[in-house]
Design goal:
heterodimer; A: about 80 residues; mainly alpha; 434 Repressor (Amino-terminal Domain); two-stranded antiparallel ribbon; about 50% helix; about 10% strand; B: about 160 residues; two-stranded antiparallel sheet; 4 helices; elongated
């Protein structure tokens, strides 16, 4: 899938645990795991807002677009 | 509700099993047939065909009841829009249409009966329309399954 979820990266940067994030956002750890493993089909703005608020980051830090066949660019 | 229908399917299978046992031990007591063909009206030289014909006739209702039982088992476990549900509903529809298709050449079995006149009729009956409706239902269930899957994978 072209949209990559970098939740693990942000959790490691902020030194937070997945279960704590799930409790803060108000969804189950299993549901959050669906997002983390890239199986999610859609994400609600309310969920994205809650994640960004807890991890003190921007949506772009969590979501990354990587087109198939193109190398990722680093700025 | 699903449990009630599942129980009814079990009753149906028990009835078919009883008919099968009676066919094996005393086929002369069996009455009925398919369309205008009646087992009890077989010519004496074809009486030996009673057992295989009755067993063959039992295949369609047995398959139908078995598929219904599997479907209601899924419903009783709370699985409403699963892939297996759609698969069983599709098979039910195909079997209903197959029963309609098979009924046409089965009219040739009238040759085995004690009858002076033979009649052939072509009709688009309940089996065909019922099968088409069941296939339409399968398509709707498939769309429901996709919606439910999308919903469950929305975070």
């Amino acid at each position: 899938m072209p949209i990559i979820i970098n939740l693990d990266v942000m959790l490691a940067k902020r030194k937070r645990r997945l279960n704590d994030l799930a409790e803060a956002v108000g969804i189950t750890p299993q549901n959050l795991s669906v997002l983390k493993t890239g199986r999610a089909r859609a994400i609600r703005f309310s969920t994205l807002e809650a994640i960004c608020r807890y991890l003190e980051c921007q949506p772009g830090d969590i979501l990354e677009f990587r087109s198939n066949g193109q190398p990722d660019t680093q700025i | 509700m699903a449990r009630i229908f599942r129980f009814l399917c079990l009753m149906g299978m028990a009835v078919l099993l009883a008919v099968l046992i009676m066919t094996i031990f005393n086929p002369d007591e069996i009455r009925g047939g398919f369309g205008d063909f009646k087992i009890e009206k077989l010519k004496p030289e074809y009486v030996w065909l009673k057992r295989p014909l009755i067993c063959a006739f039992l295949v369609i209702p047995a398959t139908f009841i078995w598929l219904s039982y599997r479907l209601f088992s899924l419903y009783s476990r709370g699985v409403m829009f699963g892939e297996a549900n759609v698969r069983y509903i599709k098979r039910l529809g195909y079997w209903m249409i197959a029963a309609w298709v098979i009924s046409m050449p089965l009219q040739l079995l009238q040759y085995l009966q004690n009858t002076d006149t033979l009649g052939f009729k072509f009709s688009v009956d309940g089996y065909f329309f019922g099968g088409v409706l069941v296939l339409l239902l399968a398509w709707i269930m498939e769309e429901g399954r996709k919606l439910q899957e999308e919903q469950s994978l929305t975070v």
